[in-house]
Amino acid sequence: MKNLFNRNIQARANLELLLVSAVSSLLLLRFYLYATGYPQVGGGSLHIAHMLYGGLCMLIAIVLQIVFLGRRAQRLAALIGGIGFGIFIDELGKFITKDNNYFFQPAIGLIYAVFIVLYLSFSFLTRRTRLRDIEYQLNALNQFEEAVMHDMDRDEKRRVQELLDQADPADPITRQLQIMLDHVTTVKHPADTWADRQLAAINRSYRRFWDRRGSSRVIGAVFIVEALLFVGALFGTLLSNVDDFSKLIHGNGGYGTVVIIGQLVSTVVAGSFALVGAIRLPRSRGEGFEWFRRAVLVNIFLTEFFIFSRTQFQAMPGFIANILLLLALSFALSQEQHAAPAGQTAKKSI
User: Cα separation of 203 and 199, whole Å?
Assistant: First the structure.
């Protein structure tokens, strides 16, 4: 039973994509319904609940995983499955109330609790522990997909080599995989499209920026400013909801007050993570970016969720900004991993 399940080294990225797409689809759906006056799909006595569309998306994700091989299918399944889950869980209020009340306020808190449990569960499943030899071998074998399609570039070959370096070198399977890798011819993708040229230019700009003196101080200052913005948002929330906190002190606080407290707590946590990132950045750009990424995830999963449950429209600018910031940090972390010494990426495990 010990080897019944073997871990995927891409699990963390896939699960994160699933959660972000789930939260994104839920918030965007609620925004769309609010903006359009909650239209009814169907006619007469029919009402086609949008949770059915969520179920369809999750079915598509399952079929993708069953029918197709490779990392591309996994990433697409995580994206579509996350979108489907967000649409599905949005209608929770209908199915926990006798009168099928979609606007049942505590449903927001329950949905939030579901996402927290999922995030903690996924963090446990992808905790940073060393993989077993067989898992390094299987992950390396899985990445030979690019070689079979004659599409493996030097970075992909290097990542396979890092995985094999962590496996038992005396194992016959490891030796055979190493022989296969040694005989793989990598391809060079010319930057012949507009998108390729823009990406290459961004990569060069990123490297030139870090070659400059004081670049770490600039990014560290950005992290600190972000933490200060969190503090400003904290005091802004406190000042604009004095009456609610007064009710809470006198034991009359309602659901709205609980949501505000959740927003404040998540803002403090996000600000603390951003501050840690600023402190860690001079020692390790990867560590600094990782802590800042955690701050952004807390904002997406918690802070924006609480804000949206109270204000709806006002949550959208912050939500979009956090998604863009998460994409930028994912790019930066990817650049740092590519620049890491051989073996360092693999040792991080999952």
Answer: 6
